[in-house]
């Protein structure tokens, strides 16, 4: 069939010229000859007298649906018609004509049409798309117009490029759509059948091949059960044979092809070779070894030699339909496998003792079995022999000496590398707990000596540093090298590993002994307090919930007296008391059962915080110094990005949004410094004034002197901690404490 020609074809150009001369004519306008079209409207777009305009596209009634254009309103909406056409076959005597069925698709968005013929097996005809999708012109003499939706109906004929198509039916969507347009649908027409195809089908159905082949269709079983495997735990009792013992096996039954695979569970130090499989995957027959067949006795088909040896060495073989001499073999199926059943695995009696959850669910669903009581088949494990190690000799570390007893080739002791990577110093996280300590002694010279005990969380090592003091006669400096320290009172030469000091053993008020020196921990730095409170599940001395429960258990019998004592301590009824009276009260109430660290944790939790505003000029000076070192001057684009993200044009953006924008510009500022700066420019609703923020960072236009520093009272400085100065606990709000411990008064 001739398809529509592509642009540029000479035949199409000639047709175009003929159409051009037919639809155009010469006229005169102001005594000037001009080429005027027949469908050219008059002034104002009004049609001329007697002029009938021809619609170029399908016209749909207005007021129904939306006013969107057709390519939006009818996107992906197609009318489908069932049609056929007949084709002459002059070169064959078996058929004079051929009926070819096809589908006509009308695309509503642009009035394009596509004709597709379904594929027919062994037809010998190129099938598929007969007419590609495009607008098809009407047959002559209206070839200047195109097919629209008005030309389609059931039991009608359409002509596409001189080929006549008979529309016999359409789908449900097409029927509903045409009825909405007001089209009265004709009844469906008759689907004629191709006579040649019908005759060929009759011949094919009546044929009986001389050599029929048996076909065993297992595709459905494979597609349904592929990957589904039943698992049974089995035992093979081989104790009757010489040097035999019970053998533990695992049987896998593959539902996809009814094959069985058996693996052996080889115990440790059993002396057996670790074979990959006890039985390779195959169908397992039910017969005994005495019934084994020779190779070739069992075949898929039985073949008969018709001629035998009558005609020389020639032979003619056909399939034996009666299956004379066929060996019938039974194989194990899933119905034969149940808990307690004994199967014959090539002469070995294997007992099924248990199965997995999938197997239980399969048998419960298919066969309705609910009893899956396992049969005990495993021998009780032998008693575990406790390893006894020789005592420590004193040479090297205890861990290193122990490694020489664990293997013939001594290996160095393994360190906790994961803990080292998690607890090593990272940025501002030092993972270092530091405590202020003093000697526990009656010596007046040693009483005033102060030490800083540092505990490294990465490897549980401890170092002691003595702070130098003037006019004491004692040189400060390193007092104890960084190392792990054993707890006192342990036997030196023993088989067990000694206990070492851990982070939980160090807290304010604890008494520790390092190599014969007794220390009292009297204080800790701010990082140590914060770390212990953040990891309260590891440090019970900083766990406020445990401390309150302990305080409740101690003071529950005398709760009324405790409330009166707190009220007497606050005669002005300000609901707060100083820390030192609060500490003395807690010591008297608990009778010394709370440690100093626990009292400080309560005080920190219920303290009245005097918010200290960090000097914004200092932060801006540090930020501008960093920006200046990294040559960052892209403040104009940064401000434009803030304005672009400010949809409401109010000059404010959320804190996290501003931080994300700064990160996208790779602002060379530390994250904590950036957060502190954004906080300085926030209002009460965590909205940042980004204009002031950018102006403050602009070191070109608004430089900040670098000599300004944080204004902190001298009495609150903490030089030894290494962390930013923090205010000590001064005033305690005792009313929330009483409510949390003893509840509110009714």
From TrEMBL:
One of its GO terms (biological process) is regulation of neuron projection development. It is found in: Cytoplasm, Cytoskeleton, Cilium axoneme. One of its GO terms (cellular component) is microtubule. InterPro entries: DM10_dom, DUF5580_M, EF-hand-dom_pair, EFHC1/EFHC2/EFHB. Microtubule inner protein (MIP) part of the dynein-decorated doublet microtubules (DMTs) in cilia axoneme, which is required for motile cilia beating. It holds the Pfam family DUF5580_M. This is EF-hand domain-containing family member C2. Residues 75-182, 226-367, 429-536 form the DM10 domain. The lineage of its organism: Eukaryota, Metazoa, Chordata, Craniata, Vertebrata. Keywords: Cell projection, Cytoplasm, Cytoskeleton, Repeat. PROSITE patterns: DM10. Its main location: cytoplasm. SUPFAM superfamilies: EF-hand. It comes from Mauremys mutica (yellowpond turtle). The keyword Cytoplasm applies.
């Amino acid at each position: 069939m001739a398809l529509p020609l592509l642009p540029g074809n000479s035949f199409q150009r000639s047709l175009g010229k003929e159409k051009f001369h037919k639809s155009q004519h010469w006229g005169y306008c102001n005594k000037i000859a001009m080429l005027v079209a027949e469908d050219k409207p008059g002034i104002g777009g009004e049609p001329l007298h007697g002029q009938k305009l021809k619609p170029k596209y399908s016209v749909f009634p207005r007021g129904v649906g939306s006013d969107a254009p057709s390519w939006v309103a009818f996107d992906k909406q197609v009318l489908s018609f069932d049609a056929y056409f007949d084709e002459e076959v002059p070169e064959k005597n078996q058929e004079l004509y051929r009926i070819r069925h096809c589908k006509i698709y009308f695309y509503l968005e642009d009035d394009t049409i596509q004709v597709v013929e379904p594929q027919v097996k062994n037809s010998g005809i190129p099938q598929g798309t007969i007419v590609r999708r495009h607008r098809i012109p009407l047959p002559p003499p209206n070839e200047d117009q195109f097919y629209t939706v008005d030309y389609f109906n059931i039991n009608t004929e359409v002509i596409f490029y001189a080929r006549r198509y008979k529309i016999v039916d359409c789908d449900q969507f097409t029927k509903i759509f045409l009825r909405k347009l007001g089209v009265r649908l004709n009844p469906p027409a008759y689907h004629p059948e191709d006579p040649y195809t019908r005759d060929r089908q009759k011949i094919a159905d009546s044929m009986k091949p001389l050599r029929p082949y048996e076909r065993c269709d297992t595709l459905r079983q494979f597609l349904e059960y592929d990957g589904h495997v039943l698992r049974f735990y089995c035992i093979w009792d081989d104790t009757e044979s010489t040097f035999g013992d019970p053998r533990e096996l695992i049987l896998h039954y593959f539902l996809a092809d009814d094959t069985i695979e058996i693996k052996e569970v080889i115990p440790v130090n059993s002396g057996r070779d670790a074979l990959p499989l006890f039985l390779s995957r195959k169908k397992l027959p039910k017969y005994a070894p005495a019934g084994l067949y020779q190779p070739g006795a069992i075949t898929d088909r039985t073949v008969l030699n018709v001629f035998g040896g009558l005609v020389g060495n020639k032979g003619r073989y056909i399939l034996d339909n009666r299956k004379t001499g066929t060996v019938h073999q039974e194989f194990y199926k899933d119905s034969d496998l149940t808990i307690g059943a004994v199967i014959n695995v090539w002469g070995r009696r294997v007992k099924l003792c248990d199965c997995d959850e999938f197997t239980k669910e399969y048998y419960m669903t298919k066969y309705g079995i609910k009893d899956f009581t396992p049969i005990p088949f495993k021998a009780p494990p032998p008693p575990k022999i406790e390893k006894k190690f020789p005592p420590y000799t004193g040479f090297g570390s205890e861990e290193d000496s122990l490694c020489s007893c664990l293997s013939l080739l001594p290996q160095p002791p393994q360190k906790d590398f994961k803990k080292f990577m998690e607890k090593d110093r990272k940025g501002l996280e030092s993972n270092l707990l530091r405590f202020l300590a003093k000697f526990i002694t009656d010596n007046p010279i040693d009483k005033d000596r102060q030490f800083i005990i540092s505990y490294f969380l990465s490897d549980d090592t401890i170092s002691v540093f003595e702070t130098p003091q003037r006019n004491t006669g004692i040189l400060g400096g390193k007092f104890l090298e960084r190392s792990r320290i054993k707890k006192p009172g342990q036997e030196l030469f023993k088989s067990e590993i000694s206990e070492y000091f851990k982070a939980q053993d160090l807290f304010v008020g604890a008494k520790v002994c390092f190599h014969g020196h007794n220390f009292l921990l009297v204080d800790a730095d701010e990082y140590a307090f914060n770390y212990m409170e953040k990891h309260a599940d590891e440090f019970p001395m900083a766990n406020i919930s445990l401390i309150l429960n302990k305080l409740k258990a101690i003071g529950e019998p005398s709760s009324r007296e405790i409330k009166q004592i707190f009220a007497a301590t606050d005669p002005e009824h300000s609901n707060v008391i100083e820390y030192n009276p609060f500490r003395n009260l807690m010591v008297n109430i608990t009778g010394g059962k709370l440690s100093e660290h626990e009292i400080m944790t309560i005080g920190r939790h219920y303290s009245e915080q005097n918010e200290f505003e960090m000097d914004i000029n200092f932060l801006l000076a540090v930020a501008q110094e960093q920006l200046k070192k990294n040559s960052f001057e892209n403040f104009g684009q940064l401000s434009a990005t803030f304005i672009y993200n400010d949809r409401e044009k109010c000059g404010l953006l959320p804190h996290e949004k501003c931080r994300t924008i700064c990160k996208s510009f790779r602002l060379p500022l530390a994250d904590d410094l950036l957060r502190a700066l954004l906080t300085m420019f926030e209002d009460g609703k965590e909205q940042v004034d980004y204009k002031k923020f950018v102006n403050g960072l602009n070191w070109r236009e608004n430089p900040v002197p670098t000599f300004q520093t944080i204004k902190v009272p001298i009495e609150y400085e903490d030089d030894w901690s290494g962390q930013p100065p923090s205010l000590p606990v001064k005033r305690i709000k005792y009313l929330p404490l009483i409510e949390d411990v003893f509840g509110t008064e009714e």
